[in-house]
Specification:
Elements lengths: L1 H30 L3 E3 L4 H21 L6 H25 L7 E3 L17 H15 L4 H27 L9
Antiparallel strand pairs: 1-2
Helix pairs in contact: 1-2, 2-4, 2-5, 3-4, 4-5
């Protein structure tokens, strides 16, 4: 379980790094007239992502979930791939990437990186990680609960983001 704890802590550290980048990018966006939408759902998103990390460790420990080698290693690979996709999104959006929905008027819509194929690739990474990270150590209840709650939250989040983008003149910005 020690290595699993280290994996979950590494994901937590990655999330903290995201927040540092997001804070810097928030300042950049606001300095260019960026407008934030969806402040109401943001605390729920932070709480859900924190609960995922806590749930992974708590369920694996207290429910005495074993490490299932075939599933565990496959899910560890998915966790790593999700991190790669997430940071590809960060790189593709540059200073426009954020954990919040902030749209900067006048910028061209992102069309590079994974945005060539998907409208919301970062959310694919979140969904994959939310299933895979718990399953690395057999925490299937955490995987199911996170996935259900995340699906509901993403319905709100994507509607918010798409609405913010739709309010811009055609051809502008990407949240």
């Amino acid at each position: 379980m020690t290595w699993y704890t280290l994996l979950v802590l590494a994901v937590a550290a990655e999330r903290l790094a995201e927040l540092v980048v997001a804070r810097r990018n928030t300042r950049w966006s606001r300095a260019r007239g960026g407008v934030e939408s969806g402040r109401g759902h943001y605390p729920a998103m932070v709480a859900l992502h924190t609960a995922l990390l806590v749930g992974c460790l708590a369920e694996a420990r207290f429910a005495e979930r074993p490490f299932p080698p075939v599933l565990g290693w496959a899910m560890a690979a998915v966790v790593l791939a999700a991190q790669g996709l997430r940071w590809w999104c960060v790189r593709a959006l540059g200073p426009r990437w954020n954990t919040r929905v902030i749209v900067v008027p006048g910028l061209p819509k992102a069309a590079g990186g994974p945005y060539r194929w998907l409208n919301h690739p970062n959310y694919v990474a979140v969904a994959a990680e939310g299933i895979a990270l718990p399953l690395v150590h057999g925490a299937w209840t955490t995987a199911l609960v996170f996935t259900a709650l995340n699906a509901a939250l993403m319905a709100v989040r994507i509607r918010c983001e798409d609405g913010a983008l739709a309010r811009l003149p055609a051809g502008e910005a990407r949240a």
